[in-house]
Amino acid sequence: MFWPSRAKWTLAAARHPVSAVLQPTVDNSGNLPLGPSAAGTKPRRYDSSVTETATPARAATRSAARPARRSPADLPFRFADRGLAQALAAERSEPDWLRAERIAAWKAFEALPVESNQLYTPYIDLRAAALDDVRPYVTDGPPGLGDDLGGLPPLPRGVHVETMGQWLERDPEAFKAAVEGGSSLPADDKLAQLARGFWSHGRHVEIAAGATVEQPIVLRWPGAAPGRALISRTIVTLGDGASAAIVEEQVPCGPDVSCAEGESVPQGFFHGTTEVSLGTGASLRLASIQRMGADQVVFQHRHARVGEGSSLHWALAQLGSRLVRSRVDNRLEGDRSSVEQVEIVFGGEQQLFDLTSYTRHLGRDTTGNLLSKGALLDRSRSFMKGLITIEKSAVGTDSYLGEFGMNLSKAARAVAIPSLEIDQPDCRRAAHSSSVGPIDATQLFYLESRGIPPDEARKFIVLGFLEPVVARVPLESAREDLRDLLEAKWAAGLEAASAAA
Predict the structure, then answer these.
(1) Strands (DSSP E) along 264-310, which ranges?
(2) Which candidate in 85, 87, 456, 496 could, as Cys together with 102 as Cys, close a disulfide (CB 3.0–4.6 Å)?
(3) Chain CA centroid to CA 420, Å
(4) b/e map of 282-301 (b: 16 or more CB within 10 Å)?
(5) What is the pLDDT of residues 278-297, one digit of tens each?
(6) What is the pLDDT of residues 213-267, one digit of tens each?
């Protein structure tokens, strides 16, 4: 085995279906991390199961004991404690205020429930995650971490793409203003506070006022190695009138790992945030493609503040990992601000995708257009939950939320819960829609009547169903890669179905 009090008008609708070898990690200097063989030659570093290194006797006791039953909402890890928050600050030589920030985030993390919205509590299921013994990265990281910064093209004046450490060194006051207090993350979310307090790696993208970046900026996050946990933050700031496009890739950290017969590969844990702030008249297109390995558990948080006259376009694709829990928060704070968000899921085997979206309209004449789609093979599941809130100040709002699931097998399950909370009746539009079901038989009949074989017809319908996100990816090479990934997943699902028959 490898080691490793105003009345509100609320509308809600829900739809239910009818029917290689494990690679070592490296630290920032390129050295291997400390392990048992190096313990006598270098200072001991933080290594936590629960704030302390497990002794052989304790490890044997744990492995011999029958695992405790977990409720669907129980967190599957134990490393997030005060000791880790202190170790991150100490071993990374962080300023005192950042250490206090981490401790405050840990306290918030301890106090909050996993799901604060009671409408969504029946749809929490974290039982597929087995992360009790994962060890968080502190100064080291998985293979491939940092490769994205090495391949950056020349950047215009006033544009910075850097690590969090480089940002802190270059402009400590701006770093402190952005990070301290956690205002760029939802204060009511337990897992967002996890990222706020326990991040070890990060990216900062800053586009100065009036600057335009013609080529998309590519950010690449490798998943955690088996038995490890990587917690990261990405902070994106665009000044007034700035324009840019970003492609985020979440990829495996290496080839698939194999174990001896009867043993299972330990899961890795990746938790990443994207925190966006747009100045007046700014424009950002941001695409994210998640294709982590089958033994990865992925938590994501995306939070955006959109200023006056600014526009934000999300294009999000969820393909990989064993379990995904994703939350997107859009705050349309400026007058005439807008957001377009399109997210797709293509699930197979026993994958679970838990997606939540919150859009809050605060400025006048704001526009929101949000669309989620999921295509599910085998025994995969998806929960698509969305809430649009129109505050009293948001006169003239135009907002739409659509959630649609396509079940490609009888065992697949999709749930869609679009909701509206309206406190301002003077709206141009406030609407939602949802549906869950199999492939439309009329579409299938039409294609087959044109001589297209049934499997090819199904493929065309499914890939066309998911195309809205693919078409919005701003980088052509990433667009074609995503199409290839979708076709490969369809082929794998077809092959598995044929073998089972």
Answers:
(1) 268-278, 283-290, 296-306
(2) 85
(3) 23
(4) bbbbbbbbbbbbebbbbbbb
(5) 999 999 999 999 999 999 99
(6) 999 999 999 999 999 999 999 999 999 999 999 999 999 987 777 666 667 889 9
Structure tokens at 213: 């970046």
Q: What is the pLDDT of residue 128?
A: 93
Is 493:266 a contact under the CB 8 Å cutoff? Answer: no
Which amino acid type is present at position 340?
E
pTM, to two decimals: 0.85
- The answer to whether 285 and 247 have CB atoms below 8 angstroms apart is no
The contacts of residue 15 (CB under 8 Å, 6+ apart) are: 403, 405, 414, 415, 416, 434, 435, 436
Query: Alpha-carbon distance 299 to 326, whole Å?
Result: 6
| Cα 440 from chain centre | 30
* Tens of pLDDT, residues 305-350: 999 999 999 999 999 999 999 999 999 999 999 999 999 999 999 9
CA distance 44 to 42: 6
- Give CA separation, 354 vs 93, 318, 326, 328, 437, in Å: 36, 10, 6, 12, 18
